[in-house]
Amino acid sequence: MKLYTKTGDKGKTSIIGGEQRSKASDRVEAYGTIDELNSMIGYIISQMQTYREIKKELEEIQQILFDCGTDLATPTSAKGYRTDQLSTEWLEKKIDKYAEVPPALTEFILPGGCPVASLLHMARTIARRAERGVVRVQETEEININALIFLNRLSDYFYAIARFINFREGRADVSYRRNAHIFHE
């Protein structure tokens, strides 16, 4: 089997069930963004020298994201969604675990910190973009609502573990200052 099919040469792709869709459709854009997020997570894992437990969690999230992407590539006439409520419940437990370690926040923080935490903040924003894409699909087509809910929690997870890792690495959160200017001294 060849890696290329040439079916996309005219800007179309097949979703599950064989239906042809524009590569610019909201549905294809949504599951493409999930694929981008999955790739970012793979890169983050490759950059982690420690935090074996978090690496395993991230690998599990990659598996779930594959299910989310499959669900989004499945038209409404198909049956058998893969993403379920249990994935979100698992993620919520992880969020609660990591969120209680660093000091509670009373203000917004700037994304950043150590390199891995900074990458996790980037993953958080990609997850938010993926979520917005899924919402666009939901406005006109049926979707697996569990995939949308999982993506919503996922950005919170990335935020929680970015703060957790920064805290463990001794990197303080940088608070957002309203009306801050470069020239303040």
UniProtKB/TrEMBL annotation:
GO terms for biological process: cobalamin biosynthetic process. It catalyses: 2 cob(II)alamin + reduced [electron-transfer flavoprotein] + 2 ATP = 2 adenosylcob(III)alamin + 2 triphosphate + oxidized [electron-transfer flavoprotein] + 3 H(+); 2 cob(II)yrinate a,c diamide + reduced [electron-transfer flavoprotein] + 2 ATP = 2 adenosylcob(III)yrinate a,c-diamide + 2 triphosphate + oxidized [electron-transfer flavoprotein] + 3 H(+). Its EC number is 2.5.1.17. The keyword Transferase applies. InterPro entries: CblAdoTrfase-like, CblAdoTrfase-like_sf, PduO-typ. The keyword Cell wall biogenesis/degradation does not apply. This is Corrinoid adenosyltransferase.
